[in-house]
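User: I'm putting together a small comparison set for a docking exercise, and I want a reference complex before I start. The sequence is below, and the ligand is flavin-adenine dinucleotide. Could you produce the 3D structure with the ligand included, as structure tokens?
Assistant: Of course. I'll restate your input first, then give the structure tokens for the complex.
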Amino acid sequence: GFKNEMISVIDLTPSYDWFQTDSLITIVIYTKQKDMNAELVIVDCQDKRLRGEIIVDDHSYLVEVDLDHAVQEDVAVNIAEKVGKVEIILKKKDNIHWKMLGQALESHNTFIKRTERGLFYRKCKLVSKTEVTHDTKLLCLMLPRSTHLCVPIGQHVYLKQTIAEVVKPYTPVLPFLPLDFKEPPRHDGAHLYLMIKIYSCGLFTQALDHLQIGDYISVSNPEGSFKKSQVQTSEDLFLLAAGTGFTPMVKLLNFALTEVGCLRTVRLIFFNKTEDDILWRNQLEQLALKDERFEVQFILSQPTKDWVGKQGKISSPLLSEFVKRSRKDSKVLICICGPTPFTEQGVQYLKDLGYSQEEIHTFTA
Ligand code: FAD
Ligand code: NAD
């Protein structure tokens, strides 16, 4: 009785504290979570405005203050993962003693449902733009030095242009598909890579295409329902991608081949209109040669006469041919992404083939 009562009054709301030295301000957030990691901490410091968000399951804790004095641009974030302690370290512009951290802003020290916390945007600089195919480009955006943000696998961000109020979601990819899986790719927190198809009548992508190197675009906090744990225990992974629906598969593929020990097969079934539309074909073929667990199948809906590969759209016969358990009771995960009708049809065919809802993940906004 007594023990249980003690436990029931423990408050799991995160809290914060701060202290200073001559040159530094350290804000410490006690998340009260054992499994903190870099993806759960989003920090921005613009001018004198500090915003530190901690994701705790479906909740969000926020430290948001108008700092007492100016700080330098570079912000350090230290995460004690096991203890759940997060330190945000700011460098004072002037070595003076601060009487207080600053003025609390509206949402300061609140712990609310993530869905109730509006998206926060920071301006990122376009640093490069390279062609992937005739209509798709790889954009590299640089986060401000004062931003700490990692987009988790399978999640997307919203882009907002200063001219129009419209925002659209995009899924960050890697700069290329690493072929050497001996070690996970070096974590580069400063850049975001986006693979974006430019549509000739596209409202947002036309404006995006007109951005020049050095221009700024606003990038939101990440969103999305994919959980790494879904793939961590799978033995067979099937990725069904259509067109730019390939983007969430990039990090997922890399993660699966690098860090999922029990994985036996990874098969990408990639649907496109024509050969010229296939994104990173060469890299995918290289990867299939290099890693025997990985296989790629290209399926074209509008091939030219000389295409000797598979053709058609997503269908039940096609899925029954390519989506098969490697063993009778293999744990499978099937991920689908593409135009909405593609995704909806795919899910229906998979269910007809006997796959359960838990074995299927669809990427949506
Ligand atoms: P719009 O002006 O909306 O239209 C673009 C073209 O498509 C036009 O030619 C229009 O005629 C046609 N069109 C519009 N709606 C439909 C429809 N429902 N069916 C058929 N045709 C239609 N795109 C990427 O390139 N890369 C990504 O990484 C990426 N990630 C995404 C992640 C999520 C979660 C979601 C939901 C979408 C993602 N998209 C991605 C798509 C992206 O958000 C935009 O929809 C896309 O860039 C088109 O925007 P737009 O304003 O240029 O086009
Ligand atoms: P696309 O028009 O080039 O088509 C690629 C292939 O998709 C086609 O060859 C065909 O096999 C299939 N397809 C297209 N329309 C279909 C339909 N009505 N029914 C069945 N199959 C169909 O594709 P795109 O222009 O690259 O568009 C990619 C789509 O993926 C966009 O709608 C985009 O919003 C979506 N997307 C979603 C996410 C997400 O996370 N939800 C991420 C990236 C892209």
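The two ends are 46 Å apart (CA to CA). The CA atoms of residues 272 and 278 lie 6 Å apart.
User: Thanks, that's exactly what I needed.
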